[in-house]
Amino acid sequence: MTKIPRIVVLTGAGISSESGIKTFRDSGGLWEEHAIEDVATPEGWKRNPALVLEFYNQRRKQLLESSPNAAHKALVKLAKHFPTQIITQNVDDLHERAGSENVLHLHGELLKVRSEVFEELVYPTSGWELKLGDLCERGTQLRPHIVWFGEQVPMIEPAIEMVKQADTVIVIGTSLQVYPAAGLLNHAPYGSRKFLVDPSEDLQPDMFRLTHIQQTAGKAMPKLVDELIREFEL
Ligand code: OAD
């Protein structure tokens, strides 16, 4: 009998684009309108925390008005047939809301906040707005639970271990420009199958021997999942 592959899925902003959430580096993306150093670094937070809070409040507000799309839902179906682990760079909760269970967030979560001093004090948000003066139980200011540029990525080690175990890797909607996330593919076992689902022509799928499905996630993922299920006669 054919061995059922273990599948690791690495997602980026592109998978949530068809849910109405902006990507970062596409034309019209978030980093065109906002300076990374102002809103996504510890230095920006020190300089102008109100600006940073406003940026993430807007992201949170938009997220609460969005819903999972066909690609998020296809991954739920995938996990019913194959052992599946999702590693996401996204800070939205659309994988979870679609019904996915094994989701590792590399860059934090928009619907959580934490103390700016005591990192282990993490709380779910209530609503979309976090304000200056909102304090943790030990009296320090709360900040978004987001991994900013220049900060450690604590979940990278477990993510590497997951990729090392993969028979098939599916990369969806990421420009693979931000490390260490982009380096995860280097840990995929030799001989593993790798797919890239992304409409962009600017990516370099050959670098990681990725089979490039050059379509949007919402269009490609339901088809890819059905093909994998058929292939393994599940
Ligand atoms: P990017 O904005 O860099 O890349 C988004 C990718 O999604 C591009 O390759 C697009 O071609 C692709 N894309 C757009 N629409 C799509 C669709 N409908 N279906 C599939 N793909 C689509 O976003 P990321 O690679 O996720 O980190 O960015 C990585 C990190 O950089 C983010 O987690 C964030 C950002 O700065 C932090 O903020 C810490």
What is the CATH topology assignment of the largest domain? Answer: Rossmann fold
Tally the structural domains: 2
Silhouette: elongated
Which CATH class of the largest domain is shown?
Answer: Alpha Beta
Q: What is the strand arrangement across the widest sheet? A: 3-2-1-7-8-9
Number of strands: 9
Q: Helix content range of the residues, please?
A: 25-40%
Uncertain stretches of 5 or more adjacent residues? none
CATH H-level homologous superfamily name of the largest domain: TPP-binding domain
Report the order of strands and helices.
EHHHHHHEHEEEEHEEEH
**SS element count, helices:** 9
Structural class: alpha/beta
CATH architecture term of the largest domain: 3-Layer(aba) Sandwich
Percent of sequence in beta strands:
15-25%
Radius of gyration from the alpha-carbon trace, in angstroms? 18 Å
Task: Characterize the largest beta sheet: strand count, sense, and whether it forms a barrel.
Answer: 6 strands, parallel
